[in-house]
Amino acid sequence: MGLLIYEWKKLCKRKIIWVFMVVLLIINAGMFLQEFFAMRFKNSDLYHIRAYYMEQFSGPVSEETQEEIGRLRIRLESGEVSASPYGSAEGDSSILREMSEEISYLLSYQEEIGKYADLYRKNADVLKAEGKKEEAWKIEKLFHAYDGRELREYQETTGWVHLFSYQKSTVFILLLLFLTIAPIWVSEKEDDMLIILCTTRNGRNRIWRAKLLCAVSAAIVFTMLFIGEEILLEYCTFGLKNPMLPAYSLPEWKMMIPRLTMIGFWLLLSAGRLVSTLFAAILILGLSSLASNIALSMFISGVGIGFFLGFGEIGAKSWNPFSLLYLNETIISQQVESILGNAWYIWQVHFLAAGLAIILGCMLCLWKRRRV
Question: Is the whole model's pTM more than 0.85, yes or no?
Answer without folding.
Answer: yes
